[in-house]
Amino acid sequence: MQEPVTLLDYSMNSVTEGIDAIATTRVVIRGDNSYLSTNASAGEEVQRTFSGIGAGMDIIVASLKAYIGALNKMLGFYGVDVKVTEKITVCIKIVYLRRG
């Protein structure tokens, strides 16, 4: 399944301090062909969004975990029986090769 995705929000917080600090990241995405939902409190129609959270000593790894978590939620909502977790190792290797 190919679904164009828009990153709506990205945040990062430090859980600990120092050289081996742990960071938590959160992303919010929306599929470009997203479904409309009705906001319960306002009664307005809004596009469905999906969030993911990641944590780790490397901010890139934590960010990838958060993004993949959000993708998995979106794919599950669309009824796709595929998890993206197998691809995280490939993504991390590509990122590290580019950083090196």
TrEMBL record:
Any one GO BP annotation for this protein: L-leucine biosynthetic process
Presence of keyword Acetylation: no
InterPro entries: 2-isopropylmalate_synth_dimer, LeuA_allosteric_dom_sf
One Pfam family linked to the record: LeuA_dimer
Keywords assigned by UniProt, alphabetized: Transferase
Transferase in keyword set: yes
Protein name per Swiss-Prot or TrEMBL: 2-isopropylmalate synthase 2, chloroplastic-like
Organism listed in the record: Cucurbita maxima
Organism lineage: Eukaryota, Viridiplantae, Streptophyta, Embryophyta, Tracheophyta
